[in-house]
């Protein structure tokens, strides 16, 4: 997820933001994972599992902490120099946060169903392969440029839907599969925008990406088509297949994402670095509305 381009550069960057730890701590990514799961719980009408939500936060935090702070990639020196510098100055937080998240996540494992652990391992393996050079040729998933956005969106989409359903004792039905596709289509534009913002660093590091080969118009069309398909799918599910009306509120997220993608390439760094991720967390609003209703 794109997160901190607006902080790069001099006194007007890091010093101007209220606390460097806010964008660099990777806490927001964990909170987004929790928000997505809460939205799933609300849409399926089941009670949230505190151990699973804790594990989701810790696992997501740990993946991003490793990728961004513990072992920054070569392309980060170009794409995120401010974050790389911050990571060097805060090694204690980088390792301490990672160890605390790992310990808390491990403590949650005995509280979860075996099926949840099995599916969680499958989703977690995508996160590990994304940051660790375990593929043939010591490559990472993020090195497979043309496929990277789809792997990331799939990991977020599947994890945010399958794990809550399985932990609640539900079956993996066609409805669950449709919900995964809905989430993937919603999240994919976010990852596409991140890829576009990172294309120069990826190119400098010798990574091939579609963002470096496609013009912005085609990239924008793909992202908008993805988000609009999610919103339209939600409407069809409600009006034609008897889906929960709460899904219409949830579909505001994909509509907001469509608007974000259709903007010109963001020159306002705050927009590209913060608001895009906040949109992905929209399902938390769905959950809040369900709780208040």
What does this structure look like?
This protein has 293 residues and is mostly helical. The protein has helices spanning 21-24, 27-44, 50-70, 76-79, 81-89, 91-108, 114-131, 148-167, 174-197, 199-204, 216-241, 246-250, 252-262, 269-280, 283-292. Helix 2 packs across helix 15 (283-292) and helix 3 packs parallel to helix 7. The model is unreliable at 1-18 (pLDDT under 50).
User: Separation of termini?
Assistant: 31 Å
Are there runs of 5+ residues with pLDDT below 50, and where? 1-18
Overall residue-averaged pLDDT value: 82
Which percent range fits the helix content? over 70%
Compressed to H and E, one letter per element, the order equals HHHHHHHHHHHHHHH
Summary of the model, kept short:
The protein has 293 residues and is mostly helical.
Short key terms for the protein model shown above:
mainly alpha
Secondary structure: elements and pairs:
Layout: H1 21-24, H2 27-44, H3 50-70, H4 76-79, H5 81-89, H6 91-108, H7 114-131, H8 148-167, H9 174-197, H10 199-204, H11 216-241, H12 246-250, H13 252-262, H14 269-280, H15 283-292
Helix pairs in contact: 2-3, 2-8, 2-15, 3-6, 3-7, 7-8, 8-9, 9-11, 9-13, 9-14, 11-13
